[in-house]
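Reviewers of the previous submission asked for a worked example of the structure-prediction workflow described in the proposal, so we include one complete record here. The input consisted solely of the amino acid sequence. No template or homolog information was supplied to the procedure at any stage.
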Amino acid sequence: MEFLIMLILSRRESESVYLGDDIILTIVRVSGEKVRIGIQAPPHIKVLRNELEIQDAGTVKVPVKAKQVDPSSRSTPLKVRRAA
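From that input alone, the workflow returned the following structure tokens.
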């Protein structure tokens, strides 16, 4: 994917950026060189990290280095944090 222009913003913890009408990026925490970002988006929007690749058929290819976890093997369900 090629972009012609990149908008660069500065945000502090708990500040947000809106993408269109229904996607919100919120800076949850800044710790050293790491930033934790919360993403609120409709269920039909795919949100992928850049180290994951989307293949032609719309499936996700996980690099060999990445840890692959079978979600059905989890004894407890994943927790979803609600935005304040």
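The CA atoms of residues 8 and 17 lie 11 Å apart. We consider this example representative of the routine output the project will generate in years two and three.
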